[in-house]
């Protein structure tokens, strides 16, 4: 049996110019904690990866979250990295 979502879905529009990169990731990334409890510094890391390919961003993200958490993943880690060309 299929159920309806608890609330209506919303659509948001935003500029996505040529050369821009969009990253969508699971809460396993945004809620990752280091051994000291420090949150994963996603925005800081992404700022360092502006000149690499989307494939490399995904690889760096996976490896870096693993280092940050010392391999103790408490949740799934998923990311979609899309770059607009042209």
TrEMBL record:
InterPro entries given in the database record: Bact_Sigma-Reg, PPM-type-like_dom_sf, PPM-type_phosphatase-like_dom
UniProt keyword list: Hydrolase
Pfam families per UniProt: SpoIIE
Domain PPM-type phosphatase: 7-84
Protein name per its UniProtKB record: SpoIIE family protein phosphatase
């Amino acid at each position: 049996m299929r159920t309806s979502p608890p609330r209506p879905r919303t659509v948001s529009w935003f500029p996505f110019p040529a050369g821009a990169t969009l990253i969508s990731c699971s809460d396993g990334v945004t809620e990752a904690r280091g051994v000291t409890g420090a949150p994963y510094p996603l925005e800081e890391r992404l700022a360092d990866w502006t000149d690499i390919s989307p494939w490399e961003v995904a690889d760096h993200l996976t490896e870096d979250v693993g280092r940050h958490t010392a391999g103790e993943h408490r949740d799934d880690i998923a990311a979609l990295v899309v770059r607009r060309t042209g």
